[in-house]
Each structure stands twice: as C-alpha cells, then as structure tokens.
C-alpha cells in the first residue's frame, strides 16, 4: 500500500512498523512531526507505544536508554541543536551499549530555516563512534527504521538517523508494509555502570566493534556504486544524491552514501576509476574531510572546502548542477520591488503585551538589557519591539542575565517561555537564587510550546510552585494577565520587581491565541457531533 | 509528462491546503509527487512557499531548480514576484490580486501591477471577492486552485474536484459543496 508521507511521518511510521516501544522527544523544527505522528497513529495508540513529550532532549535520551535496557525498541527525536543538550547521555550510550534497539533521529537544518546554527549531526555520530544512516528520500526514511533497529540490536549500539529539513518537510508516496510485532528482548542482564575501570573495558569493546560497523556499511543496501562513466567521480550523500541525479542522470560514476561509517573500499574503487572526486553532502564538510584523509592530500578532491560548493547553506538543485558543470536554465531577474516579509508575533498574542510593558518600564532607566531565549517570543528582537540583547540557546536568558548582574549591570532582565523554562531554565534560576543575583526573570507563559505548533508544555500549572521551591521568595513571584487593559498593573508590578535587589519572577500568563482558537474549534465540532 | 509548481503566499492564507488537494489528486491518479514546504517560524505572518512536483516519471529532487517552474500559484501579488527566478521563461503566474499588507514597506500596488503586466503569462483575479460572491469568504484558496486547474494538464478537473471532496469530507457535505463552488468560480472566472 502507498501512503503520501512527509519525511518525518515516514520515519514515524517506519518506527511503528518496526515494533517500536516508545518515542521520547522534545519538539524542535524540523523534527516535531515524527512524535506528533506517533501520538496520533491508531496502531501506536492501540499498542500503548509511549509518545508523551519530554522536558528536554537529555531526559528524552536517557528515558529511551532505559526503555532499551528493559528490552524494547526505543526512538529519540530532536532537532540538531537538541543533540547538544542530549550529548552527555548520547555519547555515553555508545559506551554502555544498548539492549533493545535504540535509534536517535537528529533533524539538521542547513540554511537555518528555523535554527540558530547549521551544525551537522554526523559529527556527533562519528564522535560517539556509532553508525549513522542518512536517507535520500521518504521511502528510504521508512525502510531505514527497520534496518536501523536491526543494526542497533546486532551491534548492541545506538544508531543515528540523520535527516535534513528538505527531507523532513517534503512529502512523497511511500510503499508501506504491515506492522511487525512489538519487540521485547527482556530486561538487560548486564550492568551499565560506567565507573572508570568498567568504562575502559566498554570503550575497548566499542573500538573493537568498529570493524563490524565498517563491514555493515560495505554491505549496506543503502550504499551503492553506480557506474555511468566519466572522469569525475561523485560521492553523493543523503539527499545530495537527488540533486546529482536530477542534474546528471546516469551519466557519471556515483557513489551513493546513506550509511556510515563511510564504505572505505567503495571510495577507493571510485577513486581508482576517476581523475577527481566531488563530494556532494548537505550540511558541513564531514565526508569531504574524511575522504581527504583516506585518499591523501594529492588526490584532487572537490567539495565545500574547495569552494566548488558553497561553504554554508543547504544544497540546492542549482548549486549542485553548477558544481557538476551542468548548464543551467535561463532565469528571469529577481523582482526589485519585493519587500522581505519576516515572521512576526500574531496579532493579539500575549507576548506582545509583555514586550510593550517591558519596553515602557525599562525606558525609564538610563540603560538596560533584556536577555532573550528561544521561542515565538524571540521575535520580540525584531521591530516594532527590538527588545532583546541576546538569544543563544535554550535557557541562556536567565544565566546570561545573571552573569551580567554579577558584573554589576542593572537592570538585567531575562525573558523566557514556559516550555523553555522547564527545558533548561530551572537550573539557571537555582544558580541565581543561590547567588542572590539582582535579576528579574519574566516567564511568559502561554500554556504551550508555541513556536513548534502548540505541543504540551511540561510545567503547565506548576510554575509558581517550581520558582518558590527553587528558593525565589514567594512575594517576589508575581502573576499577571498580559492584556492591553491590564497594562498599568503589569507595568507597576514589573517596576516593583525590577527594583527589588534580588531574584524576582514575573509570570505573564495567557493562553496562546493559536491553541485557544484550535481548542474552540474542536469544542464546537464536538458539540455539533453530539447533536 | 510533468509539472513543477511553486505555491506561495503569506502564513495562514491556506497554500498548504492547495498543496494537500493537488497531492491527493496526484496520488490517486498514480503520479509521482514531491512536495517540499518549510514549517516553523515562517508560519507567523511571514512569506511561505512550497515546491510541488508532479510527474509520470521518477522525481529525484524535492526542490525545483531555478528557471524550472512551469507555474507560480500565489495567494497574493507581491509574493508571486518573490519567486520569479524559479519560473521558466515561458512559465505561468496565477495569482490573487489583493495585497496582504502586514509590513510597513509594502511596495506601491501600481508598481506590483506593472511588473506583473510585463510578464508573458499572468492570470490575476480578486479571489477574495469571488470567494465572497459565492458565499464562501474563507475559500479564496479554492478559487485560486480553480484558476490554476486549467493549466495543470497532468490532472483533470474531475480529479481535482474529487480530491476536494476527499480532503474536506470529514468537515461535512456543506463544507465540501462550498469549496467546490469556490473552485468552480475560479475555474470559470479565467474564461471571462
């Protein structure tokens, strides 16, 4: 049977059909739809597949490792920068090894469509010394889930599945099969205690497995050498393969790579057939660097490092065709009058009222800084608010405000969303409390994870209790309702708390207008159906 | 046979529904299809676009090459101009005529109209007014799909109508009929 699926949905369905026990994830573009699909899927629901959102990527990775220990197949999904948050657990999961199959999906975002960098998760896979799979299309994304779980169980190591935005968020028809039964290998009889003496043994075992990983890559159905002739050999990784085929068809020697570590003998045979090799890979020049060290500095190698492909930004059919010397079609000139249309906070959004109040209150001080965080409210950096001094990583608003306050700067204000606060803001708030830092933290609570489309937020209804439990004085945890009619009250409270010389928290709380509208629609529909 | 389409507009205008309907029709017709879109931050009132490729042969790339799009289907006139470098030299633009102004520096409408008039093949219509006139004020995107339908030769009008029926069926017969009416009004409007 064929189904029209996003790359993300193909991963999700592939995992369910491979007998998944649970998915653990924190929302992040372009990975969010994987978990959402599993949450809504009838088979997954019937089987009781775990799919509730986690507080952050590290808790997700650890819970998945626990499920694997208990013998079930577990999936972890995150956007590329989530790998930084999960890294401690991820890298060490290669040392412990796994029991039930464990697949870590990292969704990279070259060109930064919705991200703050374009780090390449294949570095993480190589760093942890585990296999990586990188589908070139939606069908492979589906098929690879079965393969990745099997590989993970045969090697007893986690496997990374790396996708990029253009596959995650592109639809195509996928041939799907009947779901396999849920796996249960039973609870692990080993102990995964990484004390140094044990960890040394496990690390040696991981090193010993590298030959098996290389053999699996050589034999992988996802890697193949297509011999179409010509003197320029092409190594086409992941979706880079599609752009190569689009440009050049069958008229070249193409090594398709979708399974790492790199298949070494295939690379040597391509090199022997060719006068030069070009590496076409989306993201950073990971393969280009590895091939360079394999073939030696003398071998003519082209790619992103040599400028034949752009050093930054995603691959496109255009830059790949150009790099391959294929003639491109004539184009119309870009319009000179088209104006940029940047994203903006919705009309009627509570974050707008928060920024209006903050800007007005802080304008009365000689100088001030608002340290921002990651979410819809990052758009407060843009006109008309231009409110933010920084936005770096999840939770950094609170800790950067603290550091600035430690340096004697006043007023130092942090703004963070509810979901980002529980993801990575709570520990920083504890640091500030312990240091009695002179900061005001605004937790702009819209009762959801807004930017990724309105997923449940881990701390909903718990924020005052969390702040007080972390040691913020109860009288300096203030709640307001961000509406224009409350503006004077909000400003008064902000002013009082900014002037309080210690840690204060102001929680403007009003539901995201998008999720509120969606709930109203659903309620209306339920009422109609009840009639 | 193949067709490569850029679908565009402003976040929330309903271009992804157009993509879903064409996708449904193409899948049912047994065509190959790829449809790439960008989610996330850009949906908040920013420009949105989707690359939609249909063919009876294998499609490799999820993205359309510059100079390769047979058609730009746009909810909004300035947005249709944003993707000109993607349009084939003899490509077609099908666009709504009414500007969506949510930025302070939206260009003069006269210059937008002038640029569109200078292009070889443009169908332009007040899709909002047409949608209202058939009693479906939220159906401007279906009017636009109707306008585009006669240029999507790889799919028949009936196949597109069937897809509208399938996609909206869970919302009830009234919604299906309203959207079919908007589609038909867009299709007929091009004739005049």
What's the structural blueprint in terms of helices and strands?
The complex is a heterodimer of chains A (531) and B (192).
Chain A: E1 2-6, H1 7-17, E2 20-25, H2 32-40, H3 42-47, H4 57-69, E3 73-79, H5 82-96, E4 102-108, H6 122-128, E5 132-133, H7 138-155, E6 159-164, H8 165-168, E7 170-175, H9 196-208, H10 210-219, E8 224-227, E9 232-237, H11 240-248, E10 253-257, E11 259-260, H12 264-273, E12 276-280, H13 286-295, E13 301-302, H14 317-323, H15 350-362, E14 369-371, H16 396-406, E15 412-417, H17 418-435, E16 439-444, H18 463-469, E17 477-480, H19 487-499, E18 504-508, H20 513-530
Chain B: E1 2-10, H1 15-28, E2 32-37, E3 47-55, E4 69-74, H2 77-82, E5 87-96, H3 109-117, E6 122-125, H4 127-133, H5 140-149, H6 157-168, H7 173-191
Parallel strand pairs in B: 1-4, 4-5, 5-6
Antiparallel strand pairs in B: 1-3, 2-3
Helix pairs in contact in B: 1-6, 4-5, 5-7, 6-7
Written description of the protein model:
The complex is a heterodimer of chains A (531) and B (192). Chain A is an alpha/beta fold. Chain A has helices at residues 7-17, 32-40, 42-47, 57-69, 82-96, 122-128, 138-155, 165-168, 196-208, 210-219, 240-248, 264-273, 286-295, 317-323, 350-362, 396-406, 418-435, 463-469, 487-499, 513-530, and strands at residues 2-6, 20-25, 73-79, 102-108, 132-133, 159-164, 170-175, 224-227, 232-237, 253-257, 259-260, 276-280, 301-302, 369-371, 412-417, 439-444, 477-480, 504-508. Chain A has three domains: 2-219, Thiamin diphosphate (ThDP)-binding fold, Pyr/PP domains (Rossmann fold); 224-323, Rossmann fold (3-Layer(aba) Sandwich); 350-515, Thiamin diphosphate (ThDP)-binding fold, Pyr/PP domains (Rossmann fold), CATH 3.40.50.970. Chain A is 42% helix and 16% strand. In chain A, the strands form four sheets. Chain A has a six-stranded mixed sheet, sandwiched between helices. Chain A has a five-stranded mixed sheet with strand order 8-10-9-12-13, with helices on both faces. In chain A, strands 14-15-16-18-17 form a five-stranded parallel sheet, sandwiched between helices. In chain A, helix 4 (57-69) runs parallel beside helix 5 (82-96), helix 11 packs across helix 14 (317-323) and helix 15 packs across helix 19. The model of chain A has no long low-confidence stretch (mean pLDDT 97). The model of chain B has no long low-confidence stretch (mean pLDDT 93). In chain B, helix 3 links the parallel strand 5 and strand 6. Chain B has one domain (2-99, 109-188): Pyruvate-ferredoxin oxidoreductase, PFOR, domain III (Pyruvate-ferredoxin Oxidoreductase, domain 3, 3-Layer(aba) Sandwich), CATH 3.40.920. Chain B starts with a strand and ends with a helix. The radius of gyration of chain B is 16 Å and the shape is globular. Chain B has a six-stranded mixed sheet with strand order 2-3-1-4-5-6. The longest helix of chain B has 19 residues, at 173-191. At the A-B interface, helix 8, strand 7, helix 11 and helix 14 of A face helix 1, strand 2, helix 2, strand 5 and helix 3 of B.
């Amino acid at each position: 049977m064929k189904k029209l699926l996003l790359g993300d949905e193909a991963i999700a369905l592939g995992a369910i059909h491979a007998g998944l026990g649970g998915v653990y994830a924190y929302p992040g573009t372009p990975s969010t739809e994987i978990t959402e699909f599993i949450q809504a899927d009838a088979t997954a629901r019937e089987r009781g597949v775990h799919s509730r959102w986690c507080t952050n990527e590290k808790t997700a990775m650890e819970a998945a490792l626990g499920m694997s220990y208990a013998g079930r197949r577990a999936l972890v999904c995150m956007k590329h920068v989530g790998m930084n948050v999960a890294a401690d657990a991820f890298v060490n999961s290669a040392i412990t090894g796994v029991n039930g199959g464990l697949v870590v999906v990292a969704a990279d975002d070259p060109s930064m469509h919705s991200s703050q960098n374009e780090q390449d998760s294949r570095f993480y896979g190589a760093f942890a010394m585990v296999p990586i799979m990188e589908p070139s299309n939606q069908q492979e994304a589906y098929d690879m889930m079965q393969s990745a779980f099997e590989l993970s169980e045969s090697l007893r190591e986690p496997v990374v599945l790396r996708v990029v935005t253009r596959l995650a968020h592109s639809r195509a028809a996928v041939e799907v099969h009947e779901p396999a039964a849920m796996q249960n290998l039973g609870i692990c009889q080993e102990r995964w205690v990484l004390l140094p003496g044990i960890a040394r043994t496990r690390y040696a075992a991981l090193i010993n497995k590298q030959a098996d990983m290389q053999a699996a890559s050589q034999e992988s159905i996802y890697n193949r050498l297509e011999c179409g002739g010509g003197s320029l050999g092409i190594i086409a990784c992941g979706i880079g393969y599609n752009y190569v085929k689009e440009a050049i068809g069958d008229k070249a020697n193409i090594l398709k790579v979708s399974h790492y570590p790199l298949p070494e003998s295939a690379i040597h045979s391509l090199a022997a057939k060719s006068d030069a090799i070009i590496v076409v890979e989306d993201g950073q020049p990971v393969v280009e660097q590895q091939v360079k060290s394999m073939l030696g500095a003398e071998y003519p190698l082209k790619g992103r490092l040599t400028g034949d492909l752009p050093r930054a930004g995603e691959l496109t059919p255009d830059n790949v065709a150009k790099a391959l010397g294929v003639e491109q079609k004539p184009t119309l000139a870009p319009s000179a009058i088209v104006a940029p249309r940047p994203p903006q906070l919705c009309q009627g959004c509570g974050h707008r009222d928060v920024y209006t109040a903050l800007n007005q209150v802080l304008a009365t001080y000689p100088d001030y800084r608002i340290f921002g965080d990651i979410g819809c409210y990052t758009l407060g950096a843009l006109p008309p608010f231009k409110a933010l001094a920084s936005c770096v990583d999840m939770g950094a608003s609170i800790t950067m405000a603290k550091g600035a306050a430690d340096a004697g700067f006043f007023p130092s204000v942090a703004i963070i969303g509810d979901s980002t606060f529980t993801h990575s803001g709570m520990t920083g708030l504890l640091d500030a409390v312990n240091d009695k830092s002179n900061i005001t933290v605004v937790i702009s609570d819209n009762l959801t994870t807004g930017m990724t489309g309105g997923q449940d937020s881990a701390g909903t209804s718990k924020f005052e209790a969390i702040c007080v439990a972390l040691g913020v004085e109860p009288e300096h945890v203030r709640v307001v309702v961000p509406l224009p009619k409350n503006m004077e009250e909000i400003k008064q409270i902000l002013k009082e708390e900014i002037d309080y010389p210690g840690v204060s928290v102001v929680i403007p709380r009003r539901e995201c207008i998008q999720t509120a509208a969606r709930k109203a629609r659903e309620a209306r529909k339920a009422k109609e159906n009840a009639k | 046979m193949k067709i490569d389409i850029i679908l565009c507009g402003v976040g929330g205008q309903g271009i992804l529904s157009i993509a879903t309907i064409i996708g449904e029709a193409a899948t049912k017709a047994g065509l190959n299809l790829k449809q790439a879109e960008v989610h996330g931050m850009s949906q908040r009132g920013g420009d949105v676009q989707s690359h939609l490729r249909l063919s009876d042969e294998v499609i490799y790339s999820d993205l359309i090459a510059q100079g390769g799009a047979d058609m730009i289907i746009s909810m909004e006139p300035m947005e249709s101009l944003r993707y000109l470098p993607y349009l084939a030299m003899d490509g077609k633009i099908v666009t709504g005529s009414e500007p969506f102004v949510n930025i302070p520096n939206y260009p003069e409408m006269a210059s937008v109209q002038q640029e569109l008039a200078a292009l070889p093949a443009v169908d332009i219509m007040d899709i909002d007014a047409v949608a209202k006139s058939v009693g479906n004020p939220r159906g401007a995107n279906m009017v636009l799909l109707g306008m585009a339908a006669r240029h999507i030769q790889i799919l028949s009008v009936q196949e597109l109508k069937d897809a509208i029926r399938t996609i909206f069926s869970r919302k009830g017969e009234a919604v299906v009929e309203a959207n079919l009416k908007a589609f038909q009004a867009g299709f007929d409007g091009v004739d005049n």
